[in-house]
Amino acid sequence: MTQEPFADRLVARVRMLGAPLCIGLDPYTEQIPAFFGNGLPAATAFCHEITALAAVHGAALKPQSALFEALGWEGVRLLHAVIAEARTRALPVMLDAKRGDIGATAAGYAAACLGPAPGMEADAVTISAYMGADSIEPFLALAEQTGKGVAVLVRTSNPGAAAIQGLLSKDMPIWAHVASLLAPQTQRLLGACGWSGLMAVAAATAPDEAARLRQLLPDALFLVPGYGAQGASAADAVAGFARTPLGLEGGIVNASRSVLFPAPAQRARTLPAWREAVSAAMAQARAELAAACQA
Amino acid sequence: MTQEPFADRLVARVRMLGAPLCIGLDPYTEQIPAFFGNGLPAATAFCHEITALAAVHGAALKPQSALFEALGWEGVRLLHAVIAEARTRALPVMLDAKRGDIGATAAGYAAACLGPAPGMEADAVTISAYMGADSIEPFLALAEQTGKGVAVLVRTSNPGAAAIQGLLSKDMPIWAHVASLLAPQTQRLLGACGWSGLMAVAAATAPDEAARLRQLLPDALFLVPGYGAQGASAADAVAGFARTPLGLEGGIVNASRSVLFPAPAQRARTLPAWREAVSAAMAQARAELAAACQA
Question: What integer pLDDT is reported at residue B2 of this predicted model?
Fold first, then answer.
């Protein structure tokens, strides 16, 4: 199953769109407009519509595994269907699963998220490194063989992130120690574009840390949460990017709630009106990020 | 959905059995004996058999989510069926999922693992605290309302565990900082037995740390991995337990591979011979742990 490295596929799409926008797919059923119906059928229709719009405006799709799992095994089946649909649209899929386990168990998660688990074939997956390098290795090994990507939680965007991640040890915060586990490995997923598909999750809500993280991981693509609904600006979101002849580059910025549930879409009473509102929100995020990368 | 607190249900079963044995259910399909068949049907039959034997010898069942997920959505459906079967046998189920995410997403995982996600209703779940207190809170809140348990990764059993968990900050290892996030919360899941269902994962392979962790978390039940196939003795496994009039108490020790795939069972050619071999391995682990708790 040889394919182009994930980094090359992702960066090519970012350059084509002119903006590093990742569409987060978080099917909060209680927020899906009433005309979609209820429960699993509503989530199914909503995910199908968002995937189609993300294929126009987004460089990648990031389904949040938790919200599919919360729908039971049928939700997991829906997740597989969404990933398959995104792939037919050539939209790279980063599965936000934040898995973390050891040895053979981590290999099970790698297979479950990136394939060859039956029906599952995301292009990249998010993982936690709290358990150390041996919890990362099975994901790296599979990604290396199959042209997939792995995004490791380094500095997250939530209010409580600093409680553990920000502790200082040997004058370095814990998140920097996690980065130092990754630094010797980035070359394994390096693309021809010069960027690595061994990615770091680096929050838009902590732009100073993102800039410092860039020094530690010069070639890792960043997956940036916290833009939009969580309060960070487009400029904050690209604080860890690098200046290139093409503008700022080096990652992908996620928008979930701000593009899935913008106020005009929540007021929409028909599918065409809803599509227009969601499409406008995605286009605005894309334009903001494009401008921030050219600033 | 009021029920007895998880800590009380678990401790009652440990006392009844006389040993704190947890049976880990890790359906590595390539290790399931040939007479079970292949693929999902073999995993289904194997899980059914192990659950029946665990209900005899184990105080709890700990299915490893990764290995079910690696079987695709049908594997997740099988996981639900296994949990339902264990519940009909009054065998508490600790889902080993090691989830970790923020805010509303963590609430999604809590619902997905502990219910009310359709078909899912484990009694407890393992989670990661790398993202801080706000990533734990939704699990705690749900567990508090529904009599469930939550086991947080503190000090894990894998070779690379110390890389992050063992870093010193303010003269305390990171795992102790994680414990300090939990300490103010244990009372929320406290049972009448005096133990809390806010549990700490504390490896048998690090007995000294387990004993120190007991000082930090005097009333938290420990979930102890690393016994058996990972090399730790029964004495090491209970190093973090507390002396009580009933013997050492304060947690549950997991055995997975050593009781799922013991050599005599792997040589068995028939189901009755396999049952006898697995039952003997479980009985041996139970006896070893009972003796260690009375030493």
Answer: 66
Residue A1 maps to a domain: no
Peptide bond into B116 cis (omega under 30): yes
CATH number of the domain bearing residue A187? 3.20.20.70
Residues paired with A93 in a beta bridge? A61
Q: Are A202 and A223 in contact (CB under 8 A)?
A: yes
What does each C-alpha distance from A167 to A128, B2, B167, B168 come to in angstroms? 17, 39, 10, 9
**Cβ–Cβ below 8 Å for B80 and A103:** no
Is the confidence at residue B293, as pLDDT, over 80? yes
Residue A101 within a domain:
yes
- Give me the pLDDT at residue B230, please: 81
pLDDT band at B56 (very low <50, low <70, confident <90, very high): very high
How far, in Å, CA of B218 to CA of A101, rounded?
26
B77 chain-A contacts, CB cut-off 8 A: 73
A77–B108 C-beta distance less than 8 A:
no
Q: How confident is the model at residue B131 (pLDDT cuts 50, 70, 90)?
A: very high
Torsion of CA A13, A16, A22, A26, to 10 degrees: -90
The rounded average pLDDT for each run of 10 residues, N- to C-terminus, in chain A (295 residues) is: 88 97 97 96 98 98 98 97 96 98 94 93 96 96 97 94 95 97 98 98 96 98 92 96 96 97 97 98 98 95
Say which range, A261-265, B164-168, B230-234, has the weakest mean pLDDT: B230-234
Task: Report whether pLDDT(B60) > 70.
Answer: yes
pTM above 0.90, yes or no: yes
| Residue-by-residue DSSP string for A163-211 | HHHT-EETTEEHHHHHHHHHGGGGGGGB-TTS-EEEEEEE-TT-HHHHH
For residue A57, being part of any structural domain is answered with yes
Residue-level pLDDT at A250? 98
Q: φ, ψ for residue A258 (rounded to 5)?
A: -65, -25
Number of domains in chain A: 1
Instruction: Please name every residue paired with A23 in a beta bridge, in sequence order, or none if there are none.
Output: A61, A255
For an interface test with B, the pick among A120, A152, A164 (most B C-beta atoms closer than 10 Å) comes out as A164
Identify all chain A residues contacting B98, using CB atoms and an 8 Å cutoff: 99-101, 128
Question: Is A150 inside any structural domain?
Answer: yes
Tens digit of pLDDT for each residue in B61-77? 999 999 999 999 999 99
Residue A193 main-chain phi, psi, to 5 deg: -70, -10
**CA-to-CA distance for A251 and A12, rounded, in angstroms?**
12
Range of the domain at B230: 6-294
Chains A and B form CB pairs within 8 A to the count of 199
pLDDT at B112: 97
Q: What span, in angstroms and rounded, lies between the C-alpha atoms of B15 and B21?
A: 11
User: Are B77 and A80 in contact (CB < 8 Å)?
Assistant: no
As a whole number of angstroms, the distance between CA B9 and CA B90 comes to 9
Catalytic residues of B: 98
Q: How far is B202 from chain A (nearest CA, A)?
A: 12
d(CA B293, CA B61): 20
**A113: nearest CA in chain B?**
B70
Q: How far apart are CA B57 and CA B257, in angstroms?
A: 15
Q: Which residues, at least 6 apart from A108, have a Cβ–Cβ distance to it below 8 Å? A: A101, B64, B66, B67, B69, B70
